[in-house]
Amino acid sequence: xxxxxxxxxxxxxxxxxxxxxxxxxxxxxxxxxxxxxxxxxxxxxxxxxxxxxxxxxxxxxxxxxxxxxxxxxxxxxxxxxxxxxxxxxxxxxxxxxxxxxxxx
Amino acid sequence: xxxxxxxxxxxxxxxxxxxxxxxxxxxxxxxxxxxxxxxxxxxxxxxxxxxxxxxxxxxxxxxxxxxxxxxxxxxxxxxxxxxxxxxxxxxxxxxxxxxxxxxxxxxxxxxxxxxxxxxxxxxxxxxxxxxxxxxxxxxxxxxxxxxxxxxxxxxxxxxxxxxxxxxxx
Amino acid sequence: xxxxxxxxxxxxxxxxxxxxxxxxxxxxxxxxxxxxxxxxxxxxxxxxxxxxxxxxxxxxxxxxxxxxxxxxxxxxxxxxxxxxxxxxxxxxxxxxxxxxxxxxxxxxxxxxxxxxxxxxxxxxxxxxxxxxxxxxxxxxxxxxxxxxxxxxxxxxxxxxxxxxxxxxxxxxxxxxxxxxxxxxxxxxxxxxxxxxxxxxxxxxxxxxxxxxxxxxxxxxxxxxxxxxxxxxxxxxxxxxxxxxxxxxxxxxxxxxxxxxxxxxxxxxxxxxxxxxxxxxxxxxxxxxxxxxxxxxxxxxxxxxxxxxxxxxxxxxxxxxxxxxxxxxxxxxxxxxxxxxxxxxxxxxxxxxxxxxxxxxxxxxxxxxxxxxxxxxxxxxxxxxxxxxxxxxxxxxxxxxxxxxxxxxxxxxxxxxxxxxxxxxxxxxxxxxxxxxxxxxxxxxxxxxxxxxxxxxxxxxxxxxxxxxxxxxxxxxxxxxxxxxxxxxxxxxxxxxxxxxxxxxxxxxxxxxxxxxxxxxxxxxxxxxxxxxxxxxxxxxxxxxxxxxxxxxxxxxxxxxxxxxxxxxxxxxxxxxxxxxxxxxxxxxxxxxxxxxxxxxxxxxxxxxxxxxxxxxxxxxxxxxxxxxxxxxxxxxxx
Lengths: 104, 169, 638
Description:
The complex is a heterotrimer. Chain A is mainly alpha-helical. Helix content of chain A is about 75%, strand content about 0%. Chain A has a single domain, classed as Helix Hairpins. In chain A, α2 runs antiparallel to α3. In chain C, α1 packs antiparallel against α3, α14 runs parallel beside α19 and α16 packs antiparallel against α17. At the A-B interface, α1, α2 and α3 of A face α1, α2, α3, α4 and α6 of B.
């Protein structure tokens, strides 16, 4: 079955990645940034799984990697949200514009 | 089988478009809760993409972990800090235009490069069947060491998160 | 005669003892000095007797060897030395005894006798020398002692100036002497007196006549300085500022005779180059006439005697110049005694009458009998009245001049003899005879002063006899080392000399005793001559204008030069250094500090710009990161 060409998946993951990157660079809400990071990770995951299906030596290799990535994304999200809570308690703000203690 | 193929292709494109639209919503909505819900949609769309890639088990894992656990966590965090979320406050900072421009240019360049490339595919791999058993065998035999490590990492991250999230006493 | 070395050492010892024990000895220092000179006289007597017996003595010991030149110290004792020893020690002893009385009230009494002893040492050393350099050393020492003694009363400006004048004037002569010695050595290669025999001179001197004549003239220049010949005679009248015993010893009997002694000693050399003898004769004659002429109008008793000394020394030089060196030496001996007597007598007069101007004296004969009588004897001797000593020696000189064929010199000397008699008896008449012109309470001097006068008077009478025909001219033979000299008295000369002397005496007595107004009248008539004489031929003024004032001007000019230019240069160096340092300070402040501050300012500005990068917003950093990442990808894919 010829199915869908690989390039479709690559284009898709690329677009998803750049949307997520835009969100990281642009959103003011801290949790929004974290969610954008999740989008980026997912885009990478799609890329991994697509390539493992199409070109890898062993087809389960990509999915194993993607599973690890999910676990890491989860831990990253957990730690990130803990930090958000901590910052919220100290600074009473969740907008990154207002957290600029390292400003000149 | 052409019908199935067409259906598959149609389904894939639909899922892709939904995912992309939801992603755009994630990065631009003002109400953060709506963004979270859009994110759930994104994740579901990604799971659908996995199904189209004949990684059904993985799609289920995705939904379970991401949507079930991580999004719960995110919504908890939003709730705990949403008292000051104001829908009238702009959600984008000052570098939105420049970032959009640069990323758009990059996208154009990237898509162009990808289309120009001739991708070589491996027919054997394409025909292979990956299900729970195969994955389980892989985890337990070949990738058992990273598996253990990743569980330690998870423990450490969770413990760290608990410590970080503790209120000062 | 090895003990001859001791002769100068006794006065030297006396000098050293006195000079270190002045306070302790006080008036006893005179005894130490007299003891020293008396011992020298004693030893000299022994030496003289031995020389009369025919012995001569010569001894040297090595002193310095420089390159190829050997200098020795040594002693030469021959008849001439013996005569000088006799004169110096005997006259010296008598004057030492006299000084004890004359200087009795002086606060620096011991120092006077120390200087006198030092002088004795130097003069005896000079006499005993056996070569030119040793003689020159003692020559300089004698000059130093003369300076110390002339300016003994240095509180008086006139005395200090006189001492300085004497030293500088004799120094000019000494330079000539030194150059002469150097020339002699460079041509002949030796300086020992004994080496200058006629054979040696004709051998080695051949071809160098001009240089050697010049050397002789230069040596004579040294003698001119010491013996006050024209034109270096100007110091002797001023030297009368010193105490009278000093004038007697140094400036009558001994030091001024050193010049004559030098020329007599060098007669072999001078004879080999006759031109130098001509110079000696001419200068001697000029000096004799000129000094005699000036003495005619002098009014200070010591100045008359000073000019008389100059004139008599001119006589001696003229004698040597015309070939009568023994006559000159004979006259030296007789002159020492009667001139010393004249000076000591003058000292006695000054001591008794408290004045030196003869116009204020007169009629001192009754009050100072011994002084007057001894003074008379000396005046007769110097005027050449037989049978006193002066007659024989002066007569010999005139004979030598007559025989040399130089009539100008002979007549000049004859006229000078007339003048000598005239001014001496003018002096005598104005001082001792006639009525007192001023009311001075004069008194005779103590015995310690009059006894030496008497002794010297006896000597003045008898010391001429050894050279007289009555003893067959024993003295001249003695001086020639045993070779009898052909001396025959020429009646014409004898008559003329006696005539000149007696007529001078008579004229003086007539003018100044019987006709006191006539001298003033004559002075008015012959005004130019009178002025010429009383102003000493204006020689001092001439020297002042031609030599001294320019020298002072040069000194002032050099001082200005030193002040302005040299000091100016030094100050300018300092000023320029300050300016240079100001420039450097400007440079340091403006440029160097500017650079340093500029670096700081640039850094500040740069950091001011650069810190704006630190916005503190993570998303800005992320943006930059993404841009860079994209660029890397693009570069990689391309």
